[in-house]
Structures are given as structure tokens and as C-alpha cells.
Write a structure and sequence with these properties.
By secondary structure, the chain is mainly alpha-helical. The chain has three helices and no strands.
Length: 122
């Protein structure tokens, strides 16, 4: 199953979720960002595509978290203090996901700068 398919499946499962069970699947970051000093053009393009896909997957994950929270709020299963706690947990998950995708993008961009500088010398 591709990451995009997994993200779509997570979103669909969120639509049908009615309990406090976590249905949103946290996407996996790209396994490898090539070294800009030695990477080929094709490796850099593949890495860029992987980073873009990861960003899309994180956006889908965060959308799923939002839908999950909305479903919990509408379910009437939880009192206000518990909903506040659940919102705080959801915000932490969202922030951690955004931080990770930013770190991955920063790592890729650093290697891309190195790659481009190397290409100018050749």
C-alpha cells in the first residue's frame, strides 16, 4: 500500500469513527535523504517527490485528527474537561507532525543546496 493510499484510508476510517480509538495513521517519513555531495540528479528528484508526498501525508493525517476530534465532540461521550484534554492531545500530535515534516524538508533543502553548489562547479 502506498503512502497516499494509506493516508486516504486513514481519512475514510476517520469518517466512520465514533469512539475515542485512534484511527489516524501517522505517516512514515522518507527513509533516506541523499547526500548532496554525491547524489545523482535522479536521486534528488526522487527524494524531492518523497518529501512532497510526506508533506501531503502529514496534511492528510492532520485532517484526520481534526475529523476525529470533531467526531468525539459530537459523540456526546465526553464531558468538557475530557474534551479539553483530548483537544490538547490532538494539538500535540498535530504540532509534532508539522515539526517532523519541517525537519525533513529542512534536511532535504540543505542537501539540495549542496547538490546545486556541486553542480555549478562541474
Amino acid at each position: 500500500m502506498t503512502r497516499k493510499t494509506a493516508a486516504v484510508a486513514a481519512l475514510i476510517s476517520c469518517l466512520f469513527m465514533g469512539s475515542a480509538q485512534a484511527a489516524c495513521i501517522y505517516p512514515r517519513a522518507p527513509e533516506h535523504i541523499p547526500d548532496g555531495k554525491t547524489a545523482t540528479f535522479d536521486e534528488m528528484v526522487a527524494a524531492q517527490k518523497a518529501v512532497v508526498q510526506f508533506n501531503e501525508d502529514i496534511n492528510a493525517y492532520n485532517t484526520c485528527l481534526d475529523m476525529e476530534m470533531a467526531a468525539l465532540e459530537q459523540s456526546g461521550q465526553f464531558d468538557q474537561p475530557r474534551l479539553i484534554e483530548l483537544r490538547a492531545m490532538q494539538a500535540k500530535k498535530n504540532n509534532a507532525a508539522v515539526d517532523e515534516v519541517q525537519a525533513v524538508a529542512d534536511q532535504f533543502n540543505e542537501q539540495l543546496r549542496i547538490f546545486k553548489a556541486r553542480e555549478k562547479k562541474d
